Amino acid sequence: MRGNLRALLYLSPWLAGFAIFFVYPLVSTVYFSFQRYDLFTLEPVGLLNWEYFLKDQAAWTAIRNTLWLVVVMVPLRVLFGLGVAQLVTRLKAGAGVYRTIFYLPALVPLVAGTLGFVFLLNPGTGPVDALLSAVGLPAPDWFGDPAWSKWGLTLLGLWSVGDLMVIFMAALLDVPKQLYEAASIDGADGWRQFTSITLPVIRPVLMFALVTGVIQTLQYFTQAEVAARVASGATDSAGSVFTPGYPDQSTLTFPQWLFQQGFRDYAMGYACVLALVLFAVAMVFTLVLLRQFRFAEEES
Amino acid sequence: MTPTARRTATRTALLWVARHALAIALALMFLGPLVFIALTAVMTDRQALTSDLWPHTWDWGNFTEIFEKAPLLTWIRNTLLYSVLATAFMLVSSIPVAYALARFRFRGRRLAFLLVITTMMLPPQVVAVPIYLIWARFHLTGTLWPLILPMLLGDAFSIFLLRQFLVTIPREYSDAAKVDGCGEFRTLVRVILPMARPAIAAVALFQFFYCWNDYYGPLLYAGTDLDNWTLSLGLAAFRSVHRVQWNLTMAATLLAMAPVIVVFFFAQKVFIEGVKLTGVK
């Protein structure tokens, strides 16, 4: 009993935070989703917000864009991170220097990195498109072309793959050396060793990276917002309003639409509907993650 | 050397060359954007709008000009205030929580840990509306305080990371301290904290840089008054607010990146070890 009280004391800051910044807002979000609220008037509207959600074209565009990033960008980042990690662990000379170089972009502030990328990929100002056409590849207008803008964001995501690389490097170095020795005596080549030893051993780490990658991508906001803002050349002068998604709503992600509805158009009740949709999807992936933690706890 | 041995040696050498060639190519691709930003930052604004890569003249004056075009010093001050206070508050509140989760045996310990992971994973946008309304009631919207004050009540990611490190410290150390008559709190301060220094340094750096780089938080709370903005917020609007040229935008971008990169070079090991803690096996 004394132990429980002591734990309560140590946990008290977090318990208070959990109540104020999680439980209360979550309950409150459910309540507001049945209201019309614009900071001034509060009026119960039943299921109106939910019905509107089903008809809201922009919301569904935002869902499609977010799904695109989840399906394309997340696996590409994991594959690329694994490839780079595999390469660096195999380098005998200079591994430390390469690790530093490959990790560095992951630290660059998101806004700064995004600004750099928009300018770098802009055909008029950066060298990338000139290089691409020099070798006969298509040279798209990246952040100015709805068909390519999400690929531009994907390139930005691949550039900052450093944190995944570090996690994968640690996992790769943990694979017992004897397994490889035994396999090469049995005549297994590099690819066989990778698929039959490396992958099974580091599978939990890969799963963890995939699931956290998905959850992070459900929150994808800053890069899309900044890229659209800069590429569109929107000015913040009085009278002009920035709408996210440039070009042609192609970079509009779900959290951006939620932010726009709740804090720019002050449709706060409707924003709460969007919030609950986001919560439901994020919870599914969080449960997958929690299951993994339970297994990890049991094994240790 | 037998022919087979020679063949293996040639193969090894070729592999070595191939790996290093690939590594160098990748390194150029990773460094390219940074070099590009740095070079553009010292171009004239006319040249920045061409695809020429090498500056014709080195306009170092760009770095002083950006301070005249935008209230950069105010933004840097606000960003520092946000980052330093949030980090300090996070440490004070999160270390005891992480310690309790790692060491104490109590009912609901597993549940508490799972809830920490859940809140860590929850997109901040999910509960944004009611939390915004709380701060509006206290007339704190339009300031950075809604981003700083909650750190007094613990940060899930930091708690998680610290807990992952603290469980690896052998129990014998704290047991020995208790035999010597230390209470639980003194054991934490005198024995555990010094041993956990690398993990504490890692979460402090992560928190600091999270705040330094944060865009969503200030966008939601800082409001329209430029005097309350942070560097990230200012940077995103830099090109549009004053119709500033690209070369100056890149100079400001470089300025926002510089501290992060400098600190990284001094504290690289702390970072790498910290990132490893985030990947759970």
TrEMBL record, chain A:
Fetch the SUPFAM superfamilies from UniProt: MalF N-terminal region-like, MetI-like
Per the record, its GO cellular-component terms are: plasma membrane
Topological type in the membrane: Multi-pass membrane protein
**Spans through the membrane:** 7-34, 67-89, 101-121, 151-173, 194-215, 267-290
- Location of the protein in the cell: Cell membrane
Q: Which organism is it from?
A: Microbispora rosea
Q: Which residues form a coiled coil?
A: none
Q: What is its main location?
A: membrane
Protein family according to the UniProt entry: Belongs to the binding-protein-dependent transport system permease family.
The GO annotation for biological process reads: transmembrane transport
Q: Which InterPro entries match?
A: ABC_transporter_permease, MetI-like, MetI-like_sf
Q: Which domain of life is it from?
A: Bacteria
Could you tell me the keywords of this UniProt record?
Answer: Cell membrane, Membrane, Transmembrane, Transmembrane helix, Transport
What is this protein called in UniProt? Carbohydrate ABC transporter membrane protein 1, CUT1 family
Every copy of the ABC transmembrane type-1 domain together lies at 63-289
An example of a Pfam family matching this protein is BPD_transp_1
UniProtKB/TrEMBL annotation, chain B:
User: Where's it found, cell-wise?
Assistant: Cell membrane
Q: Cross-referenced PROSITE patterns, in alphabetical order?
A: ABC_TM1 (PS50928)
Answer whether the UniProt record assigns the keyword Transmembrane to this protein.
yes
Give me the segments passing through the membrane. Answer: 21-43, 80-101, 113-135, 147-166, 187-210, 248-267
Q: Where is it chiefly localized?
A: membrane
Q: Which residues form the ABC transmembrane type-1 domain?
A: 76-267
Membrane topology term reads: Multi-pass membrane protein
Which GO BP terms apply?
transmembrane transport
* Cellular component, GO, one term: plasma membrane
- A Pfam entry, by short name: BPD_transp_1
Keywords assigned by UniProt, alphabetized: Cell membrane, Membrane, Transmembrane, Transmembrane helix, Transport
Spell out the protein name for this chain.
Carbohydrate ABC transporter membrane protein 2, CUT1 family
Its taxonomic path starts at: Bacteria, Bacillati, Actinomycetota, Actinomycetes, Streptosporangiales
